[in-house]
Amino acid sequence: VETTAAKEMAYAMTDAQEWKNVTWVVGEAGCGKTTAARLYEREHSGAYYILCSEDMKRSDFIRDIAKKIGLRTDGMTIRDMLDAIIGALIQTENPVLLFDEADKLTERVFHYFIDLYNRLEDKCGIVFFSTSYIKRRMKMGLRYDKKGYNEIHSRIGRKFFELEQTSPNDVYAICVANGLTDRKKIAEVVKDAEQYDFDLRRVKKGVHRVKQMDA
């Protein structure tokens, strides 16, 4: 279902891919960021989805990007891999890199965003997805003048792209799309989801529970 947040994410990714923009999308856990990003990758040539994690080292980060765009990295140094990635992306028509959970990366890996941007500016779109934790991290980095934060903040236009919260109407649409027709049962799913800030993972469980009860 195209929730409000999903439409906003699609806009951000399309804009980045078409105009080579850099955007940092912020939305709470369970709003559908990962689903939307993976779906966009499947449906758009030149879009590459990379899932970030806390235990990623610089070599892991660069190797994951290389692997995603189809490059062999056997025997290559980090610098060689980065050069190969830049070369491949520059030759790709309308490329866009989609970094999910980017706020989880360590400081050393975080700094690679700057190098990527500097070498891909106006050549490749970049979209970061994360929870609102990145706003606090960025604020603290800027306050204490931590290396790289001012550069990254500048490159995303000094503003985050904040998603609208999932609404009762979004939950209703999801219920209908998944075969629920009884308005009372749909209302139960909506009411349950509301207690958990309309987390779509909770909605999924709610729909599953109702369908199992009917079965």
Describe the overall structure:
The protein has eleven helices and five strands; from the N terminus they run H-E-H-E-H-H-E-H-H-E-H-H-E-H-H-H. The model has no long low-confidence stretch (mean pLDDT 94). Helix 9 (168-177) packs across helix 10 and helix 10 runs antiparallel to helix 11 (200-214). 55% of the residues lie in helices and 11% in strands. It has helices at 4-19, 33-43, 58-68, 78-90, 107-110, 112-120, 133-143, 149-155, 168-177, 183-194, 200-214, and strands spanning 22-26, 47-51, 96-100, 125-130, 161-162. By secondary structure, it is of the alpha/beta class. Strands 2-3-4-1-5 form a five-stranded parallel beta sheet, sandwiched between helices. The chain has two domains: 4-162, P-loop containing nucleotide triphosphate hydrolases (Rossmann fold, 3-Layer(aba) Sandwich), CATH 3.40.50.300; 168-214. The radius of gyration is 19 Å and the shape is elongated.
In short:
With 215 residues, this protein is of the alpha/beta class.
Mean pLDDT: 94
Strand fraction equals 5-15%
CATH homologous group name of the largest domain: P-loop containing nucleotide triphosphate hydrolases
Distance from first to last alpha carbon: 23 Å
Overall structural class, as computed from helix and strand content, comes to alpha/beta
The helix content, as a percent range, equals: 55-70%
Number of helices: 11
From the alpha carbons, calculate the radius of gyration and give it in angstroms. Answer: 19 Å
CATH topology of the largest domain: Rossmann fold
The CATH C-level class name of the largest domain: Alpha Beta
Number of domains: 2
Strand order of the largest sheet: 2-3-4-1-5
Element order: H for helix, E for strand: HEHEHHEHHEHHEHHH
| Overall shape | elongated
- CATH arch. level architecture of the largest domain: 3-Layer(aba) Sandwich
Largest sheet geometry? 5 strands, parallel
Number of strands: 5
Oligomer type = single chain
